[in-house]
Amino acid sequence: MQRWPTLIEDHSGAEPAILILDQTRLPAEPVMVRLDSLAAAAHAIRSMQVRGAPLIGVTAAYGVVLGLGDDVSDERLGEIIALLAATRPTAVNLHWALARMEQTLRKSALVERRSAAWQEAKTIAVLDGEANAAIGRHGAELMAHLVPIKPRASRSSCLQIMTHCNAGRLATAAHGTAIAPIYALHSAGQKLHVWVSETRPRNQGLLTAWELAEAAVPHTLIVDNAAGLLMRRGEVDCVIVGADRIAGNGDVANKVGTYLKALAAKAAGIPFFVAAPCSTIDFDCPNGEAIVIEERDVAELGAPGIPAHNPAFDVTPAELVTAIISEYGVSAPGALASWQSP
User: Fold this and answer.
1) Rounded to whole angstroms, what are the CA distances from 190 to 143, 147, 158, 185, 246?
2) Residue 93 maps to which CATH number?
3) How far apart are alpha carbons 278 and 108 in whole angstroms?
4) pLDDT of 98-127, one tens digit each?
5) Among the three residues 65, 93, 127, which one is the final residue of a domain in this structure?
């Protein structure tokens, strides 16, 4: 089956543009959408046509390119950065990418600013893919040691892995974060099976199932509230999730429902791993209490006329996280400072 790219440059027209895979139409209808303006890029991020912290950052970088147009002044650059920064408050990769774009472009000559913007956005995308590939290698090595744990005759050496939300290639420029080690293990011939939680209310688990099917990785979709039951029964060897922001102390903000899976994993004695590039670590954020939790439109819950609350994320305390996997290796949550200036 064709592997649809999440984002590619489009140089077919007179003006700069990018093509994105519209994830609001998955898994039913894979469609590439052309973004040719700052407004289109901001809408794509805000409406979750693109989603996943790393891909949001990459899209925002290209959004800066699309916003410059004929006006490449410092004032216009500031306006672009402010508009894109307001699209999603929790995902720190967005702000990391925008800060990197702004720093690079303010040092470039005005006449070279548009070409410099293209090059820097491309670099951010390439770096994301490289970081995620490294996460896959480090995570695969770590998880391979779990195969003998809790052996069951019914599944022999099959490694049972649980995920939440979508932290695969659809959430990144390439490879994925939490799913990258799964792809690496599968490519190496390790027998494995993935429990995919549906992740209400946006059902990002369906995106994970779609891309795992595309890669022929064995998996089963479950309702979110079945996770604890499976862990208690001993049918899960580890849980691995991505992150939208990791505080300096190792607290992790991820899709709402992550905290409940971490609690269940702790009760069941199961490792709980977080996989994310270092751009997701906010060393200026001391702990999870300082992380702004995005509030989504309650219309997403599909319950008109009923009082509702729709937080997009929750925070998992560092003490519930077994290890954090980045492009630089595997770390205990409390030892992230060693990655601050790699």
Assistant:
1) 11, 9, 8, 5, 30
2) 1.20.120.420
3) 26
4) 999 999 999 999 999 999 999 999 999 999
5) 127
